[in-house]
Amino acid sequence: MKFRHRLFGITVGASLALACGVVFAQAGQTVKIAFIDPLSGPFANVGQNQLRSWQFVADQLKNPAGVKFEFVAFDNKGSPQESLTALKSAIDQGIRYVVQGNGSGAAAAILDGVAKYNERNPGNEVLYLNYAAVDPALTNERCSYWHFRIDADTTMKMEALTSFMKDQPDVKKVYIIGQNYAHGQQVSRYFKEDIARKRPDVQIVGDDLHPIGQVKDFAPYVAKIKASGADSVVTGNWGQDLTLLIKAAHDAGLNANFYTYYASTSGVPTAMAAGVGGKVRMVAYAYNSLPGPAIKFQDEFKKKFNDDWYTTATYTGVTMLSEAMARAKSTDPVKVAAVLEGMRFKSFNGDVEMRKTDHQLQQALYISEWRKADAKNPYSVENTGYNFQVVKAIDSYVASTPTSCQMKRPGGG
After folding, report:
1. How far apart are the C-alpha atoms of 209 and 178, rounded to whole Å?
2. Closest of 242, 259, 202, 248 to residue 223, by C-alpha
3. Cβ atoms < 10 Å from Cβ of 198
4. d(Cα 187, Cα 183) in Å, to the nearest integer?
């Protein structure tokens, strides 16, 4: 009870700050945003890249609300409990905006924590922007008015991925492997459901879940994949778990195509450049050298950090928040959330919409393939001489999936 009181109560200092208008900044002032994601442990390289990405985009984009965004880092170590501790710390510092993405377990904890805090502290609400946790439950049965997701959820990505795979005649035997938590479990479930509907002839020859961030050698898993005769591997793995899986596939001479969600995350491209028996494809809301403002950002990020700007949802998030604040003429999360519902705006990947029903962004998706850089696509991911090149664009209405969300809005609206 003591922990709950501290987490969901508001400190005297924060109360005074709110009363004085410090938190709800005006033009020319700073809006602090809590970044709660792994900054240590097996996925630290991904989290550190994404923290830089958020601040970089915020510094580069012109903010129509006239405010400056400052991202304050909190290391949750990938843990739901650590995420709640970080949320409490952010709230105690008077921060009213949170971004998080790495891990649906952590996302669920933050979603529930924010909802409980807001219920107990009307007038001092916190808004949560989810940029990468893709468990469909977060915008279905667990949906919250204070949660907005700017990545496509697993059902949307799988709808797009299987729409592509159904037309690939070499896809006959598929092995599914994933991290044993909500996301990995959902990838397995929705792939099996979608491919059975679109290509009932495809055989599922294996379905493995492994501990997240704990496997150091994927050779035993790859041996099973190889023995199964799979021509294709479907995985939602990311970060180190995908890097090591790709390395093991290379070492074992696995001749299979990989269909992935997160092959662009730190470390994976370098592993792929060493050679993979088959093609590596990725479903995502972006790809390297996507026409438009993304090219400028990827090149400038590389120049500044010698790293790759792969979480392009940071552009969407900064654009969405700043435009909502400008339209609301306020940085108060209550007023901003009201504007965000149903909001349409232009992001780096075209026209997008924050669906009012469940707060799930509707956007185009792409299937891209890992290929050698060429004159048309010169960008070099992780300085490998390779990049992701689009092979199919999926319109937002094709990738869109229904929701079961019964949104409870403040005041019963």
Report:
1. 5
2. 248
3. 14
4. 6
